[in-house]
Design brief:
The complex is a heterodimer.
Chain A: H1 2-6, H2 8-42, H3 47-59, H4 62-73, H5 78-101, H6 105-113, H7 118-148, H8 162-169, H9 173-201, H10 203-223
Helix pairs in contact in A: 2-5, 2-7, 3-5, 4-5, 5-7, 6-7, 7-9, 8-9
Chain B: H1 2-12, H2 23-55, H3 59-71, H4 74-84, H5 93-113, H6 117-125, H7 130-160, H8 173-181, H9 185-213, H10 216-224
Helix pairs in contact in B: 1-9, 2-5, 2-7, 3-5, 4-5, 5-7, 6-7, 7-9, 8-9
Classes of the chains: A mainly alpha, B mainly alpha.
């Protein structure tokens, strides 16, 4: 604690750059995923190739990508932001597609019957209903991104990851602890914030989830009747 | 496409395929780190996930562990253990195993928990013991999710084993670190290509495994999800 307090200026600086490196990819990711996801649901044949592409993105090792990009983008923030954007796409595109597909057909039919055009239907009806699933993906993407930025430190651009390499070189565990704790706190804060955003954006879910809980509870209740009872 | 030609030149030059710094040796080390960490993780997480799923308990523990595992930076854990054990060569084992546990645990738990209650009720009605229900009903039905968990773990561990080279160990990460330190970009490019190919090969292997292992009756369902 003493060490962290004494170095608070440096830590604040690293924290800001860490957040920037971690959140830009998620921002780019969501901006790309929503139109791509809409396309995959609307033109079904585009989904299998894009799904394979996202599973390839997912498998790419971050350090390998960083080092490949050095030749193109040099030692700039983009060398870390571009690979992390690919990872966030691998989580976000499937969740946008799952979210849009979770919209019940009667809802879609009702929107059509009310005279909604294709674009308005997607923007005003389907996307809002897909928010819970999209935000679930956003939470995974954000937390992974915050944690992964530190690997960028191995090529010199890694926000709080600096505390790991510096702590290792100076043989100073306190510095490493500080980095670990700050990153985990940052990830949990971002995660909690997204839960709040979801509640704020989907007020109708609150009523429904209470009802679902009751249904699950009663199902569990019936499931747990004593053996041999008829 | 300068990257691809540089990587290709490096890959086909004969000297990369021999000696202690050759691709076969580095690949074997890399696979050893991955295999050992994954093996330990399976021994811990698979029985735990099966038990918790069967007993329908511990959901909170599973979710918390999954979130924590995702948030904890592996590089930080690696250097911390390395420094705390004053430079132990086995420092890679803990972070890689810890990385591998949550996906296996979560998916095994979810897989068993998601088995239709009608199926287990029927099995119980037929007089199966709890062990038989787990072994003959819940495990086969949960196979697609269990395999998914193993695949996610394997991919993450293979990708992350790269950073073991940071604390002076072997594996394919050596090429990246040595190349960066000596400013030999072709080594970095070639090493990165081998790692990417390995990760994609593992991804493909699991797709094949799913096709081979998942019971025929479940395949359509598994593909739909």
């Amino acid at each position: 604690m003493t060490w962290a307090w004494a170095n608070r200026d440096q830590l604040a600086h690293l924290l800001v750059s860490h957040l920037y490196l971690a959140l830009m990819p998620v921002l780019f990711g969501i901006v790309v995923s929503i139109p791509v996801g809409i396309m995959c649901v609307r033109y079904r044949w585009t989904w299998p190739p894009i799904l394979s592409l996202t599973s390839i993105f997912y498998a790419l090792p971050s350090l390998a990508l960083f080092s490949v990009l050095i030749d193109y983008t040099g030692l700039t923030d983009w060398t870390v932001i571009i690979p992390l954007t690919l990872f966030s796409l691998s989580v976000l595109i499937p969740s946008v597609v799952d979210g849009l597909r979770s919209v019940p057909p009667p809802v879609r039919q009702a929107a059509t019957a009310m005279g909604f055009g294709a674009l308005r239907q997607v923007v005003q009806v389907e996307l809002p209903l897909a928010i819970p699933i999209i935000i679930a993906g956003l939470r995974v993407a954000t937390v992974s991104s915050i944690s992964l930025v530190s690997v960028g430190q191995l090529i010199g651009i890694g926000g709080l990851g600096y505390l790991f390499t510096d702590g290792e070189q100076r043989d100073f565990p306190t510095e490493i602890y500080t980095g670990l704790i700050l990153i985990v706190i940052l990830a949990f804060l971002a995660d909690g914030l997204l839960v709040l955003v979801r509640r704020w954006l989907t007020p109708w879910e609150r009523a429904r989830s209470a009802r679902d809980r009751r249904r699950v509870f009663s199902a569990a209740w019936h499931g747990s009747r004593p053996e041999g009872a008829t | 496409m300068s990257y691809f030609s540089i990587a290709w030149q490096w890959l086909i030059s004969a000297q990369q395929w021999h000696g202690p710094d050759g691709i076969p040796v580095r690949l074997a080390q890399h696979l050893a780190y991955t295999g050992i960490a994954l093996g330990i993780a399976v021994v811990i997480a698979l029985p735990a996930g099966l038990a918790m799923g069967h007993l329908r308990r511990g959901g909170f523990v599973v979710v918390t562990l999954a979130n924590f595992g995702r948030a904890l930076p592996t590089l930080g854990l690696l250097v911390l253990i390395f420094v705390l054990t004053s430079g132990s060569a086995a420092a890679w084992l803990v972070p890689l195993t810890f990385l591998a546990i949550p996906p296996i645990l979560v998916n095994t738990y979810e897989g068993v928990l998601g088995v239709d209650a009608d199926l287990t009720d029927a099995a119980r009605g037929m007089g199966m013991t709890e062990w038989q229900i787990l072994r003959k009903v819940e495990m086969p039905v949960a196979t697609p999710l269990i395999l998914l968990g193993l695949r996610i773990s394997a991919i993450q561990v293979v990708a992350t084993a790269t950073i073991a080279a940071y604390i002076g160990l072997g594996g394919l990460g050596r090429y990246i670190f040595d190349g960066l330190n000596r400013s030999e970009y072709n080594v970095v490019a070639g090493g990165a290509a081998v790692i990417v190919l390995l990760a994609l090969a593992i991804q493909a292997l699991f797709m094949l495994l799913r096709w081979l292992i998942v019971p025929v009756g479940l395949r359509r369902q598994a593909q739909a999800s």
